[in-house]
Amino acid sequence: MFKLETKKLTISESLRKKIEIICSFANVKYELIEGSIISVKDTNLGFVKPHVLKVKGNDYLLFEDTKTVFINGYKDKIKLTELEEYLKNN
Question: Which domain holds residue 32?
Answer without folding.
Answer: 4-89
